[in-house]
Amino acid sequence: MSPRTIISYDDTPGDHDALMLGRILADAGAELTLAYVRHCTQNERSQEALEEHEAEMLLQRGADWFSGLQVDTRIVVSPSTPEGLRRLAEQEEADILVFGSDYRTAPGHVAPQHSTQSLLEGGTTAVAIAPAGYHDEWAPRIHRIGVLAIPGDDATLATARSLADSFGATLTRDEHQVDLLVVGSRLEAAPGRVLISAHAQNEIENATCPVLVVPHGVTIDFPAVLAHAA
Q1: pLDDT the model gives residue 23
Q2: In what order do the strands lie in the sheet with 180-184?
Q3: Can you tell me the distance from the alpha carbon of 47 to that of 44, in angstroms, rounded to the nearest whole number?
Q4: Separation between Cα atoms, residue 153 and residue 215, nearest integer Å
Q5: Distance CA 135, CA 20 (A)
Q6: How far is it, in rounded angstroms, from Cα 208 to Cα 137?
Q7: Cβ-Cβ contacts under 8 Å for 22 (sequence gap 6 or more)
Q8: Which residues partner with 214 through β-bridges?
Q9: What is the Rg, in whole angstroms, of the alpha carbon atoms belonging to the chain?
Q10: Cβ neighbours of residue 82 under 8 Å, at least 6 residues apart?
Q11: How far apart, in whole angstroms, are the C-alpha atoms of residue 180 and residue 160?
């Protein structure tokens, strides 16, 4: 099956970067859903209908950016963005949640937003983070994929290999000068949970390429759709 991927989207510049990363993952066979989290509903019916319509239009603008790709949209109501996305991911049986970097991040660098960081500390879905300004790159390509995982973390390595096969990319243990970095969770994390070490956190924040953090013991399989286009 194609990995089910949810992109957190509310039309900010960081979320535009997340769109580009979502497009890259779609090139590797991922199925995309754009999700917008509303933090409350309105008691007055006409106001609620207006805000619901505005949310639908916001998501449609994001979906239109993908130019012909099939992209689903979801509106979630939750006082907490990470909790709303966590619940949606469980309902949709999603494999990956995609975010942009924090709004204060320098172009070309990665920094988890508050919502993203919450999901890196015990979430059940892989987390992908786009560098700031990734949306501005013209047709970014994945030629080299780095792996940051401790010995024995076969699931993270298998995920990275699957991506490399899909993109026709080279797999390397060198975390620098790569186009995508796949990061494993700590071995003491519960099976199926995301939990990163201080070293991994530091490497993520030093990254200049998209990062994919996978739960402990979980392999994400990508269809080999681009091997012929390397």
Answers
A1: 95
A2: 71-77, 31-38, 4-8, 96-99, 126-129, 211-214, 180-184, 144-148, 170-172
A3: 6
A4: 11
A5: 5
A6: 13
A7: 5, 7, 30, 32, 66, 98
A8: 184
A9: 17
A10: 115, 116, 118, 119, 123
A11: 9
CB atoms within 10 A of CB 39: 11
CA distance 86 to 102: 19
User: What's the mean pLDDT when you consider all of the chain?
Assistant: 91
| Spatial contact of 111 and 90, defined as CB atoms under 8 Å apart | no
Dist. CA 83–CA 8, nearest whole Å: 12
Buried b (16+ CB within 10 A) or exposed e, 160-194: bbbbbbbbbbebeeebeebbbbbbbbbeebeeebb
Tokens for 206, please give them.
């030093």
Mean pLDDT in residue range 96-112: 95
Contact (Cβ atoms closer than 8 angstroms) between residue 18 and residue 98 = yes
Distance, in Å, from the CA atom of 190 to the CA atom of 149, rounded to the nearest integer, reads 16
- The span from the first CA to the last CA of the chain, in angstroms, equals 22
The dihedrals phi and psi of 76, each to the nearest 5 degrees, come to: -115, 135
The answer to whether residue 198 scores a pLDDT higher than 60 is yes
Higher local confidence (pLDDT), 219 or 227: 219
Q: What is the pLDDT at residue 227? A: 44
Q: What is the pLDDT of residue 229?
A: 43
Tokens read off for 213: 């953090």
H or E element at residue 213: strand 211-214
Which H or E element spans position 21?
helix 13-27
